[in-house]
Design brief:
Elements lengths: L3 H7 L2 E2 L5 H6 L11 H4 L1 H14 L3 E3 L7 H5 L7 H16 L5 E6 L14 H17 L4 E7 L2 H14 L4 E5 L2 E2 L6 E2 L6 H10 L4 E5 L6 H14 L4 E4 L6 E3 L2 E3 L4 H5 L2 H6 L2 E4 L7 H21 L1
Parallel strand pairs: 1-12, 2-3, 3-4, 4-5, 5-8, 8-9, 9-12
Antiparallel strand pairs: 6-7, 10-11
Helix pairs in contact: 4-6, 4-13, 6-7, 7-8, 9-10
Length: about 300
């Protein structure tokens, strides 16, 4: 299998869809630690991964979004961080069976704010990211993806940790919120897409991107990605939500259909995406329709060349 960056230079790749909402559908109770399921309900996690592979995903995010020691400490599981991260990589790799595919070690935010705005020191965050990155790299990931970041300071710590751990490729993905009136998109901490993209490139990541975010549907993701492309020369990733959520029974429900989202994938590719997938609310049905659009683009590129 080709190294990830070489593959991206040749044609776009399809990532997977949501994990959190799929875990909830599989029975994960609100407030419980989904990452622990890598050890306690591994067959359910594996089934979700396999459903995305069957839908056509080339790349799988490990089920380790909240598996830093800081996050796991809230569930009394900090001492299981290494085992949870390694199991997450093993499950994603198993899902591909004998098929080629890339496993991205997923690192989400530590779940708080750095001092002086919060209680976590830079040293504590750095240590937690390095511990997680080291576990993921040791387990054999093809890349580390640092996702759903809103603080560039925190993102910088995670990128540095992934570099120190020896990650073969580092993907940095930022979550933007659409401002009131739809006049712009910024991170929760106020960074623009241009500022974030410039920061990611200067920090030494290999791929920049966007995922999740308040009111960021696939159309907004394309707008954000186009701005990132103007600000940096890295390959780009996009994993938008299935529209804005609505509350039903006390839980957010994402209602943008596979057909509606798939209609926007071409715009993502035209905006520069080399890795496309879905975030909250997306399902294997979404990814299967994304596959058809990506395949058409690959064919068109091959014909043009």
């Amino acid at each position: 299998m080709k190294p990830l960056l070489k593959a991206l230079a040749e044609h776009p790749l399809l990532a997977d869809g949501a994990m959190g909402t799929q875990l909830q559908a599989a029975g994960l109770a609100a407030g419980k630690c989904g990452e622990e399921w890598n050890l306690t309900h591994s067959e359910r996690v594996l089934a979700i991964h396999k459903s995305y592979v069957d839908a056509g995903s080339d790349c799988l995010f490990t089920q380790t979004f909240g598996a830093s020691a800081i996050n796991l400490q809230r569930h009394g599981l900090a001492d299981r961080a290494d085992a949870i991260n390694r199991a997450g990589v093993e499950l994603a790799r198993r899902a591909f069976e004998n098929r080629p595919g890339y496993v991205f070690g997923d690192m989400g935010p530590f779940g708080g704010l750095l001092k002086p705005f919060g209680k976590t020191s830079v040293e504590e965050a750095r240590a937690a990211f390095l511990h997680q990155a080291t576990s993921l790299v040791a387990a054999g990931v093809d890349a580390i993806v640092i996702e759903t970041q809103t603080s560039l300071e925190e993102l910088g710590l995670a990128i540095a940790a992934a570099r120190e751990a020896g990650a073969p490729c580092i993907i940095a993905s930022v979550a933007f919120d659409v401002l009131r009136g739809g006049r712009d998109a910024r991170t929760m901490m106020g960074a623009t897409p241009e500022r974030a993209a410039e920061f990611i490139q200067k920090s030494g990541a290999h791929v920049a991107g966007t995922n999740c975010g308040k009111d960021v549907d696939i159309a907004w993701a394309a707008k954000i990605l186009a701005r990132c492309r103007q600000a940096c020369g890295l390959p780009l990733l996009a994993k938008p939500n299935a529209g804005a959520p609505v509350l039903e029974g006390g839980r957010p429900v994402y209602k943008q259909s596979p057909e509606e989202m798939a209609a926007g994938v071409k715009a993502l590719l035209e905006a520069g995406a080399r890795i496309v997938g879905g975030c909250c609310g997306t399902t294997p049905a979404h990814i299967a329709l994304f596959r058809a659009v990506v395949d058409r683009e690959i064919t068109a590129q091959a014909t043009a060349s």
